[in-house]
Amino acid sequence: MIAVQTVLGLVEPQSSGLGGGAFLVWYDTATGTMTTLDGRETAPLAARPTLFQDDNGEPLSFFDAVVGGLSVGTPGTPKLMEEAHRRWGRTNWSTLLEPAIGMAENGFMVSPRMAESIAGDDERLRRFPATAAYFFPGGTALAAGDMLQNPVYADTLRQIAAHGTAAFYTGPIAQDIVTTVRTAPGNPGVLSTLDLALYDVIERDPVCVPYRTFDVCGMGPPSSGALTVGHILGMLNAYDISDPNAADTWRLMGDASRLAFADRGRYMADSDFVPMPTMGLVDPAYLAERAALLQGDDALPEVGPGRPTWDHAMLLGDDVSIELPSTSHISIVDSAGNALSMTTTIENGFGSRLFVRGFLLNNELTDFSFATHADGYPIANRIEPGKRPRSSMAPTIVMHDGTPSLVFGSPGCSRIIGYVAQAIIAHIDWGMDVQQAVTTPHLVNRFGTYDIEKDSDGVALEAPLTALGYQVSVRRLNSGLHAIGIGKTLTGGADPRREGIALGD
């Protein structure tokens, strides 16, 4: 994982890297236990709830908030890699960084996806001199097939290899990160060296929800991933969705997703800061109550959050935060049977667009709600100092009879939740192998509009879903699912929509 992540930060810098954050789900075969590591970015101590509001108290437009230092949270990925290595690593720490160091020094070939991403973000990437110099050498955008070197990244990794992540979170690297954030022209941020020095990874219990004869386990708050995926599957447990070609299957899946997203918008955030009905949201009785709303033969005309059981009192307003796709996912199973699922990101493509010490800084703070209140009630996912923004990342390990059966996850903003839930259904209900499950066309419904993947067989469902009462949008849906099926042998599946691959040794 450490070797993969540091190489991805070099060859896929638009999606993840040292300047971002990650969630890791780990199954330990020796103890038969599962745990998770939260390496999500944190809001600076100087952040205030009105950080993304103008002088009149109105929310900023998304890219006005994103591009520059204002959106940068304290990175967590380096510390997560180090903590995972401390707990479970066997290979020498510095050895794991050598592949990325060698590629950074000797050069790597720019991939078609990286080149396409650069071309699609031309104006924003050119806004900052260091970023422009790297992605537009001599003023011309990097093209697929170009050889690119990043000796500054190699130097950063060498310091981390020699001194651990203390070299990242303190000293000259930390000072350069803070200076870059605080002096970003037009949109400076509030990150400090104290924020970096105080950052730590948090071990959390996984969230597990039964589905058919399986248990679907993943990352709890501050991620909404496992809770919302579990919410969707928990409602569908009562229904037959065995026919992937039936419009009613997609009606049930789509409206279950809409109900789950309504609860997500009201209740889910960093539970270290906001009381959350976490157990109530996945309580079988509550899921049965929500599932009953799916009875019928057409689209639900409207959906709203339910009233799960609380162990305390709290009134919250609804949040609709903006998330745009980027992110990477890594699934690994080793020869001993240990399993790792990690989703990692700098949030939007190219993050804040600030480039320092050979890597890009995240724009993770824009995963918070820009508004602080709704209908007079505080929004759970509002910005607070030291808080971790709500995420949709859903690294997942599916268990069967007490052992891992499927390890997977995906990039893709809040559509990650739909991609992951659909892949589980494809594998378990539709009998697809892991490659078929990650390749099958996407149909995703979060807030009412049914998104159908353009140029796929799913377009055949456009008319039937429209007839059921849905507004339908046929569009590109760019996931990046990576799956490992575990049985007598290991089988891998890599999403053809991205550049990932499945490798076994």
How does this model look, in words?
- The chain has 505 residues and is an alpha+beta fold.
- It folds into two domains: 2-200 and 325-378, no CATH class; 204-321 and 391-494, Gamma-glutamyltranspeptidase, large (L) subunit, C-terminal domain (Serum Albumin, Chain A, Domain 1, Orthogonal Bundle), CATH 1.10.246.130.
- 33% of the residues lie in helices and 17% in strands.
- It has helices at 2-11, 62-66, 77-88, 93-106, 112-120, 122-125, 129-135, 151-163, 166-169, 171-182, 193-198, 225-236, 247-267, 278-281, 284-291, 416-428, 434-439, 462-467; strands at residues 21-28, 33-39, 108-109, 147-148, 202-204, 207-211, 214-218, 328-333, 339-345, 355-356, 359-360, 373-374, 377-378, 396-400, 403-409, 443-445, 449-453, 471-475, 482-486, 490-494.
- The strands form six sheets. A six-stranded antiparallel β-sheet has the order 6-7-14-15-19-20.
- A hairpin with a 2-residue loop joins β12 (373-374) and β13 (377-378).
- α1 (2-11) packs parallel to α4 (93-106), α4 (93-106) packs antiparallel against α8 and α12 crosses α13 (247-267).
- The model has no long low-confidence stretch (mean pLDDT 94).
Question: Can you give keywords for this protein?
Answer:
single chain; 505 residues; alpha+beta; Serum Albumin, Chain A, Domain 1; 2 domains; six-stranded antiparallel beta sheet; five-stranded antiparallel beta sheet; 18 helices; 33% helix
Biggest sheet: strand arrangement: 6-7-14-15-19-20
Distance between the termini: 15 Å
Write down the overall geometry.
globular
Number of strands: 20
Average pLDDT reading: 94
What percentage of the residues does DSSP assign to strands (E)?
15-25%
Structural class, judged by helices and strands? Answer: alpha+beta
Oligomer: single chain
Instruction: Provide a count of the helices.
Output: 18
**Helix fraction bin:** 25-40%
How many structurally independent domains?
A: 2
